[in-house]
Write a structure and sequence with these properties.
By secondary structure, this protein is α+β, with helices and mostly antiparallel strands. It folds into three domains: 140 residues, Outer membrane lipoprotein wza domain like (Outer membrane lipoprotein wza fold like), CATH 3.10.560; 79 residues, wza like domain (wza like fold, 2-Layer Sandwich), CATH 3.30.1950; 66 residues, wza like fold. Helices cover 22% and strands 29% of the residues. It contains six helices and 18 strands. The strands form six sheets. A six-stranded mixed beta sheet has the order 2-16-15-17-13-14, with helices on one face. A three-stranded antiparallel beta sheet has the order 9-3-12, with helices on one face. Helix 1 crosses helix 6. The chain starts with a strand and ends in a 9-residue tail after the last strand. GO terms for molecular function: polysaccharide transmembrane transporter activity. Keywords: Signal. InterPro entries: Poly_export (IPR049712), Poly_export_N (IPR003715), Soluble_ligand-bd (IPR019554).
Length: 346
């Protein structure tokens, strides 16, 4: 039989609870990298830096707004399919012709037949025709006009226009990360920023029709989750419809419990092939004459609120008391722990 005083037992429990923590606590603003087999980290320093780098996720609904920038000056106007080209001969008006560029990029001209014009400038085509007709005519003065270069744009507007949304289309990111855009087909967008996707789309659309431009917007977000764990009222997984601060995330989870350690909230963020943990001190929030930076979270962040050491010790005492009472041990001012015999003595 062994007799331990209550004070001695509680002291041992408090010491054990203090030793339960691994390593030194994180300092204010300190970051620790956790090497794993599949994660890496590159944390943002500014709270709002995550806003322009939102990554498109499967299930997101994107709004594609088309516009034709006919007001923008082009360094070199190139002849394209469906452009109407008018060729005027100064001294031989009977040879004048007006043709629309066919899908094969050609037009038909007198004495020459098919002439490939797609992708050429007006100046290049004029010089080429003067050289050719100089072999036939004594005075091959001519000039090339493009009286209706916007006909294809008008047709495109008619094709893209819908009654409810005008020149706007809603597209949904498929589970495989692809989106099917009008005219250009499938484009992989998952995990990319809006700037990256917008740049690729405009490069593709410009090859289809010069001046055709699109802007990409987030119509509905359905991919981001936030994980709030530890000493909060309702730990769990929460939807993240917009960028949130640590304080807002804790509020979504019902707030802190009584035993929460508010000065050591741990935020874990994943990027690439590593993860990072940093400490946020909520106990400094809203104090007078003290600066406090609201820490903004990114999608898939993990917020962990640990317990205070005294709370861990109290829970350990409670759990031990339940075990003691379950086994029928007597508990008074002194604890009497009866050792079971190692063997049965007959």
């Amino acid at each position: 039989m062994k007799v331990l005083t209550t004070a001695f037992l509680l002291g041992c429990l408090l010491w054990a609870a203090g030793c339960a923590s691994v390593g030194e606590p994180l300092l204010q603003g300190e970051e620790v990298l956790y090497d794993t087999t599949s994660f890496s980290f590159d944390r943002k320093n500014a709270p709002f830096a995550i806003l322009p780098e939102y990554r498109i996720a499967p299930g997101d609904v994107l709004d594609v707004l088309f516009q034709t920038r006919t007001w923008e000056k082009k360094e070199n106007f190139l002849l394209g399919i469906d452009h109407v080209i008018s060729i005027k001969f100064v001294h031989a008006p009977e040879l004048n012709v007006e043709e629309k560029v066919r899908p094969d990029g050609k037009i038909s001209l007198p004495y020459r037949g098919n002439c490939y014009v797609l992708g050429k400038t007006v100046e290049e085509l004029t010089a080429e025709l003067k050289e050719y007709y100089g072999k036939i005519l004594q005075n091959p003065d001519l000039y090339v006009l493009v009286p209706d270069y916007r006909s294809s744009i008008k047709d495109l507007k008619t094709d893209l226009h819908t009654a409810p949304r005008g020149l706007s289309r809603l597209v949904t990111v498929r589970p495989d990360g692809y989106v099917t855009f009008p005219m250009i087909g499938h484009v992989f967008v998952a995990g990319r920023t809006f700037e990256e996707v917008n740049r690729e789309l405009n490069e593709k659309y410009d090859t289809i029709l010069a001046g055709l431009h699109c802007d990409l917007f987030l119509e509905k977000h359905s991919g981001a989750k936030l994980y709030v764990l530890g000493d909060v009222a309702r730990p769990g997984v929460y939807e993240m419809p917009k960028p949130l601060t640590v304080e807002q995330a804790v509020a979504m989870a019902g707030g802190f419990t009584y035993g929460a350690k508010k000065d050591t909230i741990i935020v874990v963020r994943k990027k690439g092939e590593k993860m990072v943990a940093t400490r946020v001190d909520f106990s400094r929030a809203f104090r007078e004459k003290e600066e406090y930076l609201f820490f903004y979270l990114s999608p898939d962040d993990i917020v962990y609120v640990p317990k205070r050491p005294i709370t861990r010790a109290a829970e350990l005492v409670r759990d031990l008391a339940e075990v003691v009472q379950f086994r029928g041990w007597s508990v008074g001012f002194n604890w009497e722990l009866h050792s079971e015999p190692s063997r049965i003595v007959e």
